Amino acid sequence: MTTAKPQTSNxxxxxxSKDVLSSGLKTRHLTMMGLGSAIxxxxxxxxxxxxxxxxxxVILAYLxxxxxxxxxxxMLGEMATARPxxxxxxxxxxxxxGNWAGFSTxxxxxxxxxxxxxxxxxxxxxxxxxxxxxxxxxxxxxxxILFAIINFAKxxxxxxxxxxxxxxxxxxxxxxxxxxxxxxxGLLPGHTFVGTENFIGGGFMPNGLPGxxxxxxxxxxxxxxxxxxxxxxxxxxxxxxxxxxATRSVIWRIAIFYIGSILVISFMLPYxxxxxxxxxxESPFTQVLAMANIPGVVGLxxxxxxxxxLSAFNAQLYASSRLCYSLATTGDAPKMFxxxxxxxxxxxxxxxxxxFAFASVGLQWWNPTGLLDFLLNAVGGILVVIWIIIAASYLxxxxxxxxxxxxxxxxxxxYPWVPIAAILALVGLVxxxxxxxxxxxxxxxxxxxxxxxxxxxxxxKGIRKNRHTVSxxxx
Length: 475
Known about the structure:
This protein is mainly α. The chain has a single domain, classed as Up-down Bundle (Amino acid/polyamine transporter I), CATH 1.20.1740.10. It is about 75% helix and about 0% strand. The protein has helices spanning about 15-20, 25-40, 40-55, 60-80, 90-95, 100-130, 135-150, 155-185, 195-200, 210-220, 230, 240-270, 285-290, 295-330, 345-365, 370-405, 415-435, 435-475; strands spanning about 1-5, 410. Strands 1-2 form a two-stranded antiparallel sheet. α6 crosses α18 (about 435-475) and α7 (about 135-150) packs across α14.
């Protein structure tokens, strides 16, 4: 879908982020950041939900979702290569459709990151609290302070920390795939060839097309988070090369890890025995590894899940601060959030994200009736909004990049049919969500939130215009 193009680019960003933020991230940092954001606790605990409703045909659901996200990331990669910016898709939607689009897209994604921050830390703190026999707020406080220190330091330090956290998760997935293949072919002592009894014993699509549709809804957002790669790219040593390499490797590695894991689980466990997991002991990954008689497998998976949650928290804290910084540089957030430290870190934006991270954690422990459900439901639909806007922005900006000669060394084939097909697929997903009782509230919540942000963008624009008029009159 993508190809290298031997053409130079001026890489001029649509905002000033590239000129004032540091450039300490390497390609390996971006790659692991993308992998770490997409390979989270949801993979280890939530994989069984899709298998339960769709059976082995959930692989088709992952393929469909993966192809759509691959197209979205290719479009985003092309725009980011040509115009690296900390605001990423927020900056590109502003360039394509105006201030309202950049404002709404940036803040709605910031909101999603903040809410997910709270969910990630709440889950990790609960497990760590149980380990040490203390109240969950204690490890939560310690971890937030630790990650605040990491995010206040040079971005290269953040990148290195995130690299090793993500490396652990990737290593566990690779180890799982190797052990799973050995189990399937009966190459471990005491095991025989499994065959296809579990995989198609109950039928490849046991619940028919409705089951596949439900499976698609269950896995549609599994690849969410890899957009962070293009936010971080503005602080890389060579944005064009880093985005090109990181985007390609992240797309293919995530596809292999997800689909490979689903194949192993489907071959080793009958789909009727698989469901969503609330604990590490219930995870299908744990069940498969237990067959290999690995000692302490439950404890191992708990450690991996905590690392996954903390790694995602760290990456999302970083991304939310950079988005806030980018919005401040365009006037869509107070100017104080555009200030940077000696290490070229937007400290005020980091502080804001930390404050709201605490608020989000507290909100989830307080759990007010109705409010938390509304906010978390909005999170589920925000990715669809972001992906549709990315594709629409690409439709508008790609001809401009070609005409201006700013198309970088990474570009996507198939314009305009690929972005149009991606938008239609995402609209189809929204329609499926409307007909699904469990997903309908996601569409309602994100629609209300997005329209409120659009209205707010015009209100702020009007206030700004009035101030400018008053200022000119006074002068």
